[in-house]
Amino acid sequence: MLQKHSKQREAILAELSARKDHPTADDIYTVLRKSHPNISLGTVYRNLSALADSGKILRLHNGKGSDRFDADISQHCHFKCTVCGCVSDFSADAGSVLPPLDRECFEGRIDGYSLMFYGVCEKCLQK
Amino acid sequence: MLQKHSKQREAILAELSARKDHPTADDIYTVLRKSHPNISLGTVYRNLSALADSGKILRLHNGKGSDRFDADISQHCHFKCTVCGCVSDFSADAGSVLPPLDRECFEGRIDGYSLMFYGVCEKCLQK
DNA sequence: ATAATATTAGTAACGATTATCGTTATTATT
DNA sequence: AATAATAACGATAATCGTTACTAATATTAT
C-alpha cells in the first residue's frame, strides 16, 4: 500500500486537508472531477481507505450514511446534527471531555476511541 | 409504527432482551428461524428499526459491518475488539467516564452521545 | 530506454439495509 | 361472533455505500 506516488492521491489528500467539513468519499469525488475529469470514484475510495489505514487521515464511521474523512488525525470528538446530517468538530478537546480511564477495570487493550455527540446544530435550531 | 401487536416483534424483543452480546439483525434472524421457521429477515430488520426509533432498544452503529442492537437502553459505553469483532459493554458506567459537559462552549443542542472504545479483547490478547 | 509493477478508470459485484406488494393477522366496530 | 379497516407479514426486488476485478496507464528502479 502506498508504494508509489500518484497525482490522484495527492489531489485527494490536498482537497481533504483544505476543508474542515469532514467530507464523504463522494463529496471529494464530486469536487475533484472538476480538476480531474477522468478520476474514478473507486480511486477516491481506494486512496481514502489506504490513507486511513496508514494513519495519515481519520475515517469517521457515521452510523447510517457514508463514512466521512478528516485530515486532522489528532484524537478529537465530533458532533452530528440529527436534522441536517452535518458533522463538525466538537470544540472541547478530547482530553477535557474524556478523563484518563481507570485501566484496572478492563482486561483487554484499549487502542483508541470514537466519541460522537448527537443533537441539533445551531443552524437547524434557528429554523 | 408499532400500532399493532405482533408475535414476531414480541419474539424479536424477547430474544434481544435475553442476551448480552449485542447481536446483529441477522444473528437474531438465524436464532428465531428455529422457533419461527417462516419469519422473514425483512421483518427482523423492520422491527429492530421500529423498536430503536421508538426508544425501546438501542442501535449500535458499528463502523464497517452490520449494526448491532442492545436491549439495555441506558446510556453506556461499548468496546469493540478490532481482532475478532466482538462488541461488549464497557464496564465503567457512562457517568464515570464522561463528566458533565461544559454546555457553554457549544451552540447547538446535545441529545446524547455514542462512545465506543477500540482495542483487543482479553481472549484475543491471549492468543 | 526498458522492465517491473503499483495505480488507475471503468465497471461489475458485494453486503447490509430498505422498499414494494400481495397476503395474513390484529384490532375496532357492528 | 362476523365484518371491516389496516398494520404487519413473507418473499423478493431494489438501493446504497463500498470493494473487487481487469485491462490500460503511470511511476520508479535498473
Provide a quick synopsis of the model:
By secondary structure, chain A is α+β, with helices and mostly antiparallel strands.
Overview of this structure, please?
- Two copies of one chain form a homodimer.
- Chain A is of the alpha+beta class and 127 residues long.
- Chain A has two domains: 7-70, Winged helix-like DNA-binding domain superfamily/Winged helix DNA-binding domain (Arc Repressor Mutant, subunit A); 76-126, Dna Ligase, domain 1, CATH 3.30.1490.
- Helices cover 35% and strands 24% of the residues of chain A.
- Chain A has helices at residues 7-18, 25-35, 41-53, 94-97, 122-126, and strands at 58-60, 68-70, 76-81, 87-93, 109-120.
- A three-stranded mixed β-sheet of chain A has the order 4-3-5. In chain A, strands 1-2 form a two-stranded antiparallel ribbon.
- In chain A, a hairpin with a 7-residue loop joins β1 and β2 (68-70).
- Chain A is flat, with a radius of gyration of 17 Å.
- The first copy, chain A, starts with 6 loop residues before the first helix and ends with a helix.
- At the A-B interface, β4, β5 and α5 of A face β4, β5 and α5 of B.
- β5 (109-120) of chain A pairs antiparallel with β5 of chain B.
- The structure holds a DNA duplex (30 and 30 nucleotides).
Number of helices of chain A: 5
Task: Tell me the span between the first and last alpha carbons of chain A.
Answer: 46 Å
Structural class of chain A: alpha+beta
Oligomer: homodimer
Radius of gyration of chain A from CA coordinates: 17 Å
Number of strands of chain A: 5
Mind describing the biggest β-sheet of chain A? 3 strands, mixed
Look up the CATH topology of the largest domain in chain A: Arc Repressor Mutant, subunit A
Strand share of the residues of chain A?
Answer: 15-25%
Global shape of chain A: flat
Strand order of the largest sheet of chain A: 4-3-5
Mean residue pLDDT of chain A: 84
Secondary-structure element pattern of chain A, one letter each: HHHEEEEHEH
Number of domains of chain A: 2
Q: Which two chains have the most extensive interface, and how many residues on each?
A: A-B, 35 and 36 residues
